[in-house]
């Protein structure tokens, strides 16, 4: 009942959470709204999935996207585990607001714990703790390797979702007009249409109407993009499109 109550509160406060998300990371407001509503569905799903603990089998649909922190937190809460959550130091507010709604839903204090501050220091404490039995992390491959090595001493279970620059192959029989809406490839026809599609995108403040792309999170994010452009194109599969 607590998880279902939490789902209802997330749904009721979806607009405020979306605005907070756009405020702290800059993404377009409509995308933040989609992320909040889709993320909330994980809470509802795992609230019912928890019935499996006492043997009640229910239909299940596998989720294939990582939206909000609720995807990692909800299954742990559903089976009665406590959670220590370390959100990104760049975007902590949305996670904190979601945790506050969990308390309002009736989650006992101490079940969902928020930790803020220096990521390496927090990570070290979690890795060395014998009370933490499992770690889940979404982020860079480099940090994932550190967590995997650090988990060995205390034999922690670990779930990692790493990297964000996966390749995508478009075959010659594909519908290029459909693929160009969200995919990149090297064919001339595709590149031309992609450039035309990108030219129509509006970059700006995430709260402004019609904005398709918000700003990068910080100067480091901008440097990563510039660094990718500076590498040999065959290394990163990058082609600069002009329009």
Automatic annotation (TrEMBL):
Residues 68-184, 186-227 form the Aldehyde dehydrogenase domain. Keywords: Oxidoreductase. It comes from the Eukaryota. One of its GO terms (molecular function) is succinate-semialdehyde dehydrogenase (NAD+) activity. InterPro entries: Ald_DH/histidinol_DH, Ald_DH_C, Ald_DH_CS_GLU, Ald_DH_N, Aldehyde_DH_dom, Aldehyde_DH_Superfamily. The active site is at residue 161. GO terms for biological process: gamma-aminobutyric acid catabolic process. The keyword Secreted does not apply. Pfam families: Aldedh (PF00171). Transmembrane segments: none annotated. Belongs to the aldehyde dehydrogenase family. This is Aldehyde dehydrogenase domain-containing protein. It comes from Chara braunii.
